[in-house]
């Protein structure tokens, strides 16, 4: 009996000396980590957040289009005091260095007047003019941006012309505002309201909804409107517009 007790005591000593702790039944648990409530809420908020807005793809560039730099030259000839035109060129050319001038349009515009004398980067699509024309490469100007704009510049460029449909109406500046009593035109479409920077007079005489070809202008802070983006209406939707 004494020998058996001594043997059991000796075996226990061996088990204690190897440094291995016995496994407790309470340690035999699943190792899944529970996410604290704060983390769960944050994850839920992230998953419910609206997806980031995907930027609109760039406008396709026609295979025949050209990018170039030039100086805008607005013809001052042929304008009578009442605004009527003589039978001389009264449009706009873009003077390129070391290349033929570009005929941008045969029609005057407040937009081109604001760009007169500025160096610009332009995207133009050449075309063959019909009927009488002046010398130079004729192009439909798709995009323009002023190079190195100065503090006094107002119109800094424009992008592609698009078709818009909406109601064209005349408004007056609110009393007490900087434009109190000043008349201006707005185009209200289904999705947005624009202030019109320039529009052919014949279009302002249209009643009801109008469908026009128009270009949103890039302008300096001094020209930005509280009404909405500034719009250049170039013609009716069924018209060819410039040039």
Task: Count every beta strand, where a strand is a DSSP E run of 2 or more residues.
Answer: 11
Low-confidence stretches: 5-47
Q: Structural class given helices, strands, pairing?
A: alpha+beta
Mean pLDDT: 79
Q: Report the total helices.
A: 4
Straight-line distance between termini = 120 Å
Radius of gyration: 36 Å
- The helix content, as a percent range, equals 10-25%
Instruction: Choose one word for the global shape.
Output: globular
Structure, briefly:
The protein has helices at residues 2-17, 37-48, 110-115, 201-204; strands spanning 66-74, 92-95, 102-105, 119-126, 137-146, 155-158, 162-172, 183-189, 193-198, 209-219, 230-236. The protein is an alpha+beta fold and 243 residues long.
Topology:
Elements: H1 2-17, H2 37-48, E1 66-74, E2 92-95, E3 102-105, H3 110-115, E4 119-126, E5 137-146, E6 155-158, E7 162-172, E8 183-189, E9 193-198, H4 201-204, E10 209-219, E11 230-236
Parallel strand pairs: 3-5, 9-11
Antiparallel strand pairs: 1-2, 1-4, 2-3, 4-5, 5-6, 6-10, 7-8, 7-10, 8-9, 10-11
Report what the structure shows.
The chain has helices at 2-17, 37-48, 110-115, 201-204, and strands spanning 66-74, 92-95, 102-105, 119-126, 137-146, 155-158, 162-172, 183-189, 193-198, 209-219, 230-236. By secondary structure, it is of the alpha+beta class. Strands 1, 2, 3, 4, 5, 6, 7, 8, 9, 10 and 11 form an eleven-stranded mixed β-sheet that branches. A hairpin with a 6-residue loop joins strand 2 (92-95) and strand 3. The longest helix has 16 residues, at 2-17. The chain starts with a helix and ends in a 7-residue tail after the last strand. The model is unreliable at 5-47 (pLDDT under 50).
């Amino acid at each position: 009996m004494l020998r058996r007790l001594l043997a059991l005591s000796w075996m226990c000593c061996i088990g204690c000396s190897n440094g291995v702790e016995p496994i407790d039944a309470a340690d035999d648990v699943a190792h899944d980590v529970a996410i604290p409530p704060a983390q769960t809420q944050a994850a839920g908020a992230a998953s419910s957040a609206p997806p980031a807005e995907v930027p609109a793809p760039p406008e396709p560039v026609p295979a025949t289009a050209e990018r170039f730099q030039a100086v805008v030259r607005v013809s001052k000839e042929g304008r009578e005091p009442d605004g009527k035109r003589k039978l001389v060129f009264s449009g706009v050319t873009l003077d390129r260095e070391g290349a033929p001038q570009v005929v941008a349009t045969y029609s005057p515009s407040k937009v081109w007047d604001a760009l007169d004398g500025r160096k610009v980067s332009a995207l133009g699509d050449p075309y063959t003019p019909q009927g009488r024309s002046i010398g130079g490469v004729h192009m439909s100007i798709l995009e323009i941006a002023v190079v190195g704009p100065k503090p006094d510049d107002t119109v800094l460029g424009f992008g592609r012309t698009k078709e818009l449909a909406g109601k064209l109406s005349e408004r007056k500046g609110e009393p007490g505002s900087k434009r109190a009593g000043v008349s201006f035109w707005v185009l209200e479409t289904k999705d947005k309201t624009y202030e019109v920077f320039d529009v052919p007079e014949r279009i302002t005489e249209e009643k009801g909804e109008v469908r026009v070809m128009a270009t949103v202008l890039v302008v300096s802070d001094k020209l930005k409107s509280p009404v909405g983006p500034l719009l250049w209406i170039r013609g009716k939707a069924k018209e060819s517009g410039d040039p």
